[in-house]
Design goal:
The protein is mostly helical. The protein is 64% helix and 0% strand. The termini are far apart.
Length: 142
Amino acid sequence: FWSISFGEGSSCDYMEAMRMFGGKAAATDINPMLELMFRGMLLPNIELDWVDGFKSDFSNRAIDFLMGQIKRADLPDDVVLRIADTIFQHDFLNLQALRYKCRTLSRQGKSGLAKSTYDTFRKEYRDSMGEKFPHSFKDITG
């Protein structure tokens, strides 16, 4: 078994994220969490059986936390977009993140960017799933 102890003055991003997952983050607290999670999956270049559970648990908790946050009405558009992009770092085919991102961009008058985001997602979906994406742009932005 391994054990890691952190002394005074040291920190661990993983432990900090796990602490945040357990609490209620205010709008001012969401940015540090996004900074931690925007880097993507935990230990992306390590493929060991005993690590897989930690990686999966971290991504699941990150997505659950972020999905709870993105629904908040008090978040500015730039934070909603950052949350959607961060969700995509952990799940590049997340339909809800696509909806929030495209709707926010459309609301901001950035229809071309929203359509480009949708088209990229649709291509990645087809390449990964081997089938056509079942939702139209209008369904997503509706």
